[in-house]
Amino acid sequence: MATIGRAVVRVPKSASKGEVVKIQMVITHPMETGLRKDKKTGQLIPAHYITKVEFLFNGKKVTTLHTGAGVSKNPYFAIKMKVTESGTLTIKYEDNKGGKWEKSAEINVS
Amino acid sequence: MKRKAILASALVAGGAVFTMAMAQEEQLPTHLKELLELGMHPGHAFIDEGKDYYHSIKGANGKTCASCHGQDGEKLQGAYAKMPRYYKDLDRVADIDTRIKGCMTKYMGFDAKDKKFKKDFDKKWRVPLATYVASLSNGQAISVQLDDPQEKEMYKYGEQLWYMRVGARDFSCGICHTVLAGKRIRLQGLPDPVKNKLYTHWPAYRFGSDRMWTMEDRVRSCFKAYFLYTKQWDEKKDWVKKPPAHSDWVIALELYMKHAANGATIEVPGLLR
User: Fold this and answer.
1) Can you tell me the ipTM of this complex?
2) Which residue range or ranges hold the Sulphur oxidation protein SoxZ domain (chain A) (predicted)?
3) Rounded to a whole number, what is the distance in Å from the CA of A24 to chain B's nearest CA?
4) Which of A31, B32, B73, B214 is 20 to 30 A from B16 (CA-CA)?
């Protein structure tokens, strides 16, 4: 089991101005719904899922995803974004137990 | 005579249609195809994590993996393509899991009997490290050579185990994956890892159970799930058991399958249902 909250972000190495690029990410997270029972003890496993994923480009908000317990384990997210300048893409995400993480990637526009 | 010829040609045409249908059936299910086209899946998070462990885990000797094998695994490129093979320092044929454990206990100063190390290794380190090391050989062809007498012996043992029927269901690997290969169990097609060189995508991420698995996990789990092995292990007395991790039994099967896949290109991490 990989560490909770670890993410991999993939952006194109270079893009031309005005191009629509694809940004992909995978977050390692158990995404417990809170409805499952532990097979050994019979107790409910407490809910633990990502509630919000925020995409920022150069400090400016691109989009926000409000996710819930219905999303699969180790979820994959992808967005398409138009780039006009080089900069840093920052992705902030948090879960319902108070975990907060950040991940960033550089995009070079020529 | 003419009629016979027509009949024969009809039969041939029928056969062609039939084989075409078979070929189409063997294609990937569409959802799996879509996932592969995305170009990224949770398996890549394990490579990332393995890379961190490669540089950060320190044994009692103060050594990390990077201090012997070079930054970013320089000296390990292509190593996975030759595994499992005979290692002089371990004095046995080892696959990737066994090799990593051997390195950790022998050179990094971990105690093999330490409970904390055992737990950490099995639950945390083994799979990410194995995935990372395997991914360094991406794009290279598998080339398992049987130069050493121990390797040859192991290969023979593996071939024997492949067809050996064991357990409460009296099953062997070969029944599903050689004799019935190409047919289906419920909705799943049965692949032939020996003929079709299917070793290329291991370790793989399985999105059915949302777990990353090495081949060792896969083989052992097969023995538990399909062969109905019990909890005690004595291959002569009691046939019904899950083979212990890093045992010759598991490694022999791995060697047999991987040798059969010689020449195929490695693509790690794989994605399976």
Assistant:
1) 0.82
2) 10-105
3) 7
4) B32
